[in-house]
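Hey everyone, long-time lurker, first post.

I ran two proteins through the pipeline my lab uses and got sequence/structure pairs for each. Pasting them in order. The first:
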Amino acid sequence: MADAKKYTDKLANARVLVIGGSSGIGFSVAEACLENNCTVIISSSQRSRIDSAISRLLSSYPSAKDRLSGHPCDLSSPTLEENIKSLFSKVSTLDHIVYTAGDRLATMPLGEATLEKIQKAGMVRFFAPLLVAKHAVAHLAPGPNSSITLTTGVVSEKPNAGWAVPASYSAGLHSMMRALALDLKPTRVNLVSPGAVVTELWDFMPKDEFPKLAEQFKKGMTTGELGQPEDVAEAYLYCMRDRNVTGSMISTNGGSMLMTGKF
């Protein structure tokens, strides 16, 4: 008689759309979902990035060829809503949606913030997830087995000087998530808040500067280590697995919320 798999098979055969799944935390979520025998659809802004991510994923999970696909969706475009509708038209019925998409944080002195810059800063990180939720309802299997998991960051609770624009959107995602949990019930909606995590998001920095920044981050974390995307991905798995969690924020920050100074 085979052992029971009451817990390890909770996500088996689920269909998961990872928006932002070509890199960083989203890529790790895609890896984790494949390991849990899900069918995974990743989305990113460019077909080339999707193809590269699929190639990397299949190098680690060659048996998942029939459970992995991807579709481009530009979330920074003026045609944002039409792009999202087009994406959903290609994915059929889903069980879970994970939104990890993000662009470079629009940090700037408040005096330099113009309406145009503020609106641009919110496209990928605020307006897009709201519109994703709007159109997701028609494509998610009904009931509390299904979920949407959004992404914010510790800046939503512990802002730094010069972060007024991104911190405003990040904080707004807390209220968005709770309101969506009501609007979309019984589908579950949750929010993951990572601290500093080692991802490609930092690639814009000169290579000799990031190690210095990393050391600053480490001093402000009780773990003494930056987050790794494969660890942070566990928070998203939890949100998908636990049919009792909705309207909740899961923080994974290396203890930075306990420390003084910058996150």
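...and the second, right after it:
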Amino acid sequence: MDNGDALPGGKSSPRRRFQKRCMLEVLSVCLIIAIITIALVFAITHQKRLFTSISGPKIGSNFADPCFIEVDGKYYAFATNKFVKPHSSQANVQVATSDNFKKWNLTGIDALPDAGAWATGDAIWGPDVVQLNDGTFVMYYSAQHILSIQQHCVGGATSNVIEGPYLPLSTPLACPLSHGGAIDPDGFKDVDGSRYFVYKVDGNSLNPRTHTQNPTPLMLQAVDPTDGISLIGSPIKLLDHQERDGPLIEGPSLTRVNGSGPLEGVDIYVLFFSSNVFTSKFYNVNYATSTNGIRGPYVRGEKPLLQTGDNNGQLYGPGGLDVGLDGQKVVFHSGIRRTSFIRGMWIGDIVVDNRSISI
């Protein structure tokens, strides 16, 4: 047995003390490196992203779930009613206009003074307006159903002029009350002239009753391209929520772009949607893409397109994104003064690079 490192009396030799000191220094360096690495990872994953292509709020009052359309060189935006308290005197569907997409002004017009005989007339949410081939307009919207005020259904209304008033149909277009109802419709015209609207089955409206998380699928419904309101066939499911989405996904909006590079000649369908609850800071904007037609399957993007903290902390609970016919211009809402109960309208431009979307 070698006792060369021990001295009489059990004291350590200089060599042993040197080895211990070296080991402590190495451990100290490793600990410092680990701390720096963790700090860098935290900083990267929690950084406040800055997007120069978005700006706002362009409407600083409550203008949630906005949509927009360009007609004869002028832009029109429509939004959820300003307040959702019963018998509110506010407009059912707000309207704002812009000559250049940058500066917006509220008109004070109620585009949908009557939500239809099937609706209570309160809580009109998430409108979208499309122009038909004959120049007339269709508005899709959701409203409380008189038979179940905890649930909404998707309705349709028509007008000869863009700002309305829109006249509602006598019955809703999508009304799966037993599954929670339907909200957040969004119209879409495909390159071949076919027309659709997408919407959310509002399954989470049943959660308090069932004490479980219900499905909230995003559905695609074909309609007659001549009138935009006559249903063709049954709706099909495009996407449903996953664990990372919290209890729901909602607010769908569709666009189609041409693929490039390895996807040249391929139609790429982009489905934008929001995840989580709109009253929380976790509300965000996501997207999924399909290269196999409008019916999918849709593949989700790796990370949210917009989230709380973006734009140097200016965005809070961004959601309700709507994309224009050009596949570039978008509008969306974000909480004012870090609250989701007042949601102003922002604008932006997206860039689609095959399956990757940026803003």
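Reply from user beta_strand_b:
Welcome! Quick read of the second one: The two ends are 71 Å apart (CA to CA). The chain has three helices and 22 strands.
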